Amino acid sequence: MNPISRFFTKIFGRPAADKIAAARGDSTQPADLLAEFESPKNRLVVGSSQSTGIERSHNEDALLLLNGFTLGTHSHSDFGVFLVADGMGGHRAGEVASAVSIRTVARKITEHTVLELLNGQDSTDTDPLQDQLKQALEEANQAVVDTVPGGGTTLTAAILVGNQVTIGHVGDSRAYFIQDGKAEVITRDHSLVERLRELGQLTEEEAAVHPQRNVLYRAIGQGANLEVDVFSMPAPKGGYLLICSDGLWGVVPDPTMIDIIRSAPNPQTACDQLVQAANFAGGPDNISVVLVQFPED
Amino acid sequence: MHRTTRQLSETGDSEGLDRLQPGATLQERYLILGMLGAGGMSSVYKGRDLHFPNVTKLVAIKEMVNLIADQSMYDMVVRNFEREADLLATLSHPAIPTIYDNFSHHNRSYLVMEFIDGQDLEAILNEMDDFLPEEKVVSWAIEICDVLHYLHQHQPNPIIFRDIKPSNVMVDQHDHVRLIDFGIARHFQPGEKGTMIGTEGYSPPEQYRGEASPTGDVYALGATMHHLLTKRDPRVEAPFSFQERPVRSINPLVSPELEQVIDMALSYDPKERYPSAMLMKEALITTAKRTGLLSQPSIAAVISKTDSVKEIWAFECEDEVRGSPLVFEGNVYMGCYDNNLYALEAKSGEFLWKFATEGGIAGRPAAEDGTVFVGSEDHRLYAVSQNRGSLLWSYFAEGPIRSSPALSDGHVFIGSDDNRLHVVNQITGRRAWRADASAAIWGTPLVEEERVYFGCESGDFYCYDFKSELKWRKKTKRAVTSSPILIDGMVYFGSRDWTVYALEAESGFQVSRFRLGGATISSPFYAEGKLFIGCGDNHIYAIDAKHMRESWRYETDHQVTGSPIVHEGSVYCGSVDGSLYCLDFHSGRLRWRFHTSGPITGTPAVFENTIIIGSMDHRVYALIS
Question: Which among B476, B505, B510 has the least Cβ separation from residue A129?
Fold first, then answer.
């Protein structure tokens, strides 16, 4: 194809043309047509699940999902807000801390990021998403210090805008990208044993059973000098974003998680099965799971 | 006697942690006056020894509650306690409180010792609004070294303190250091359950493997000094991250000599620390004397200065070279303010041909399929044959062209001072479409996946699709001369509003940004997770793209208006100070600098391992290192 026709093909012969042809009824199988329009392949699909577990008497985890997608020629990008928090501290402080934190973050992101998207903001006067997310986690830290003294929580937030996932993270809940049968932890546990493992003092196996494996050096609610990890990564096309508390990742090995996700018919079922797997393995802690499946393109 | 010995609870209330009240007596000898502190399973009380009825002899009484359920473990804890109490009682050093007595009663064990009238370092830290003075910290540290040396020399076995931290070091009325809490309470701590915040913070990494040695105490002393001098609590920082926040970066009043001593004490590898507390003490004394001659070599690894640069060839034009060279199929193509487009052989610098336009050439040429494209201030975009430099066609814009062409899908994309982006067929030279901007376009458009991205001099940044439909627009506060790049779905570019922007490519949503120390017209270059960009504040910046945080920056002697490139672990960038700089990719350290006689405003190009750069001294240089 010469450059001119290549160019015009690109301009006028958009891939959408195939779909238009299909919609016009060139296809003789209406069932296929229906399947194409109902298939989740072109959009985000989200699942979530939670359990107190077997050993704990009450649930200190919290999670929150906001998911927006639009269709139309002049539509804005898809967006999503996915939060998992794992509270800690006696006298119910943990469950309040996790709840207060995710509410604070969700409110801030809604007020700024989501409204900005819907408004089609075209100036750079507002703070960029990474700054907003960092401020949101800092506000959550202050809210916990003010309202739940002695309480603390992990918080892993993933904000999806278009094809970029922006992560805000404190503590040892985790976000994974799962693609092509591989799971990559994209967050960094703020725990003592993870630090020792990074420094080569402990092996993965030693870390998994270390008596101090539940010691965090950073958590929402710690007060001054909270350092928040904030970064952005391109969403894994055709893959998954998994966010979970240590009640899942500390109990169910990565290959099992991948198997469950791959064989489940949809993200919701996968989440339910992941929680079952953690409970089947003893359910030593509260379990929270959010799973986001991304379209191929 | 109205006072009675307190009846200790045997019924086992909630946690067995009820405290002794003032007025209670223990062993009919120690009258409790009040509590000094509590932590975990232990409490410390201030008491009075009633065996000295005529004077007030104050004592400190440490109480430990044994909550271990298993009988044999319980007994072992009590035995350990007694053994350690015996050991402590034999120690004699001015910084170690004297032990008077020990006893156990039901599930509690007690240690009676010298009462120290003073404050621990943690309390002192909390009370100080400012940094503690260096001399104070050094004099305390020398005393701590002294007592550590005493403990480490203990026969038959050295005693490792294991828990040097501000709250375990008291400063008495005479400003002398006293070590408290010999860790006896440790055995009484049952295994912690549930997630907790905060680490021990001061302990060396090897201690988490159960290894205790004198160098571990040296590390903990270093950590304590770091905390005292910086007021940064290591219990809420990433463990073992002291060297990531050097003392002087937080408290510049501290001398470099002391920083070096602390740094060495905090070495991750025990073998690299002071091998003994005595040697650390000597280093501290040297520092205190301000001789400035520490025995340690500078820690900063210096990249070999023997790296040098050689000029392979230079080619002289008739005017300033402000634009950037293009290396294509073994040749260098380069525009110049003498109005010519030059073709040179990259290996030798041999002149091949030149093509005269009627205006200065500010941009970089582009080439594809035997044709070289270049814009000129004479308002024209030229297509010239690659082998002979003969004109194939020219296209007129309505203003000067200072933008550089981008080639994609058989078309040339180029901006002009007529406030338009022109899309011109590569073969026919006819316009396919054009897009409007609100001011002149000087940067190079970015064409990717049927979209074109570009900024303009009013500060607007645009994304058009191939149907010439505006997809999105973003307004920055000053001109966007910098050319955008697209990495993993994110568009990066600089603005004269002192910012590098990161916008989500599909929506233009502002995901992140990086604040520079000045305006930039330089274009970012991406390699291995880092963005490199020059800035009007004279610096070349390396920015971690994922977090949009500075990795390093390097200061040149003038503005950096040209753009960097990366080749084989080095960053190459010119400056208006006339030099081309070669910097280490990871650290930003200077490998070499090559001086020309005029400002460098263009971007270097690479041919094999040769770096090609133009200068306003009218020359094009080919350099090899």
Answer: B510
